[in-house]
From TrEMBL:
Gene3D superfamilies: Medium-chain alcohol dehydrogenases, catalytic domain, NAD(P)-binding Rossmann-like Domain. One of its GO terms (cellular component) is cytosol. This is NADPH2:quinone reductase. GO terms for molecular function: mRNA 3'-UTR AU-rich region binding; NADPH binding; quinone reductase (NADPH) activity. Keywords: NADP, Oxidoreductase. SUPFAM superfamilies: GroES-like, NAD(P)-binding Rossmann-fold domains.
Length: 325
C-alpha cells in the first residue's frame, strides 16, 4: 500500500487527508509510476474548493503534474519501459506516492533535467509555451503585460518573452516579488498594491497600450486589464486566482477598442500526442539551453499539502513549488 492526499468533501485546505490507497496494476495503454516529485499549482486549489469539478467526483486526489519512474507497463505500451524517467501535465490525481497514468500522456525526460525541476515546470512551462507561442505569437514587436509576474508561470514567461525580444511589463504585490520578476526578464514592473496598473501601463507605453495582456488573476484585475490594451488587442484570461469574473459584458470589448478575448486552457493545447510532444519539446529545449531557468523556491512533503495550500493561497510562495512524496 502507498499513500496519497485524498479529498472526500470539497472545501478549505483541511479538506485534504493523507491516506493509504491501493494503486493496482496498469491496464492496456497505461503505466504505473513511482512519483519522485509533484508540482503545486493554483488549479489544485480550484479543484479542492469545488470551483472546478473533479473529473470523477469525490473522493479524489488533486494535482495535475509530476515526475517519476516507470514501474510497470500495461498491454500495448511500446514507447516506455520500466526504469524510464517521465513527467506529465494533465492526468488528474498527482498527489500520490504512486499512480496509474495513461502512457500517451507521459513524456520521457532529458538527462539534463532533474525530477524536481520537471515536476515543477510541466504545467507552468507548457502553459507559458502555449501563451507565448500559440495563443499569441510574441516577438520583437510585441509589448505585453503579464499579471502575477513573480508566480510560477510568470517567471517562466518573463524569461521566455524577453528571449523572444518582447517588451515585457509585469505586475506584482511586493518589492521582493518585483525584484524577483526583474531578474527574470521583466523590463518594467508595477506594484499593483500601490499603483494603478492601467495608468502605469499607459505611461510606460506612451499611451499606446499593449498588444496582449496575460491575466491569471481574474476578478481583481478586471476590467482594468482591458484598459491596458491597444485597439484590437488581445486579453488572455487563463486563470482566476482572485475569484471568477461574473456577468462579463461582451459590449465592453467594443467600447474599449474592438478588443479580442480568449479563455484558453493547457489541456486543449496538448490534447493530441503530437501537440503534447511539440509543446513539451519546446519547453525542454529552452530549459536545456539555459534560456529559461526553473527555480524550485519551495519544497514541502506531500503529506504536508495542507500547509502548502495555505501558503499558496496566502501569497507566501514565489515561482515554483514542489511536493515530495
Amino acid at each position: 500500500m502507498v499513500h496519497a492526499i485524498r479529498v472526500h468533501e470539497t472545501g478549505g485546505p483541511d479538506a485534504m487527508r493523507w491516506e493509504q490507497i491501493d494503486v493496482g496494476e496498469p491496464g492496456p495503454g497505461e503505466v504505473r509510476i513511482r512519483q519522485t516529485a509533484v508540482g503545486l499549482n493554483f488549479i489544485d486549489v480550484y479543484f479542492r474548493t469545488g470551483l472546478y469539478p473533479a473529473p470523477n467526483g469525490t473522493p479524489f486526489s488533486p494535482g495535475n503534474e509530476g515526475a517519476g519512474v516507470v514501474q510497470t507497463i500495461g498491454e500495448g505500451v511500446t514507447h516506455l519501459k520500466p526504469g524510464d524517467r517521465v513527467a506529465y501535465a494533465g492526468p488528474f490525481g498527482a498527489y500520490a506516492q504512486e499512480r496509474i497514468v495513461p502512457a500517451d500522456k507521459l513524456v520521457i525526460l532529458p538527462d539534463a533535467i532533474d525530477d524536481k525541476t520537471a515536476a515543477g515546470m510541466m504545467l507552468k512551462g507548457m502553459t507559458a509555451q502555449f501563451l507565448l507561442r500559440q495563443t499569441f505569437q510574441v516577438g520583437p514587436q510585441t509589448t505585453l503585460l503579464f499579471h502575477a509576474a513573480a508566480g510560477g508561470v510568470g517567471l517562466i514567461a518573463g524569461q521566455w518573452a524577453a528571449h523572444l525580444g518582447a517588451t515585457v511589463i509585469g505586475t506584482a504585490g511586493s518589492d521582493e516579488k518585483i525584484e524577483l520578476a526583474k531578474a527574470h526578464g521583466y523590463r518594467h514592473m508595477i506594484n499593483y498594491r500601490t499603483e494603478n496598473f492601467a495608468e502605469r501601463v499607459k505611461e510606460i507605453t506612451g499611451g499606446k497600450g499593449c498588444d496582449v495582456v496575460y491575466d491569471s488573476v481574474g476578478k481583481d484585475t478586471f476590467p482594468g486589464s482591458l484598459d491596458c490594451l491597444k485597439p484590437r488587442g488581445l486579453w488572455v484570461c487563463f486563470g482566476q486566482s482572485s475569484g471568477p469574473i461574473t456577468d462579463f459584458n461582451l459590449a465592453l470589448l467594443a467600447q474599449k477598442g474592438s478588443l479580442y478575448a480568449t479563455r484558453p486552457t493547457l489541456f486543449t493545447y496538448i490534447a493530441t500526442r503530437e501537440a503534447l510532444e511539440h509543446t513539451a519539446g519546446e519547453l525542454f529545449d529552452v530549459v536545456e539551453k539555459g534560456i529559461v531557468r526553473i527555480e524550485v523556491n519551495q519544497e514541502y512533503r506531500l503529506a504536508d499539502a495542507v500547509q502548502a495550500h495555505q501558503d499558496l493561497e496566502g501569497r507566501k510562495t514565489t515561482g515554483t513549488t514542489v511536493l515530495i512524496p
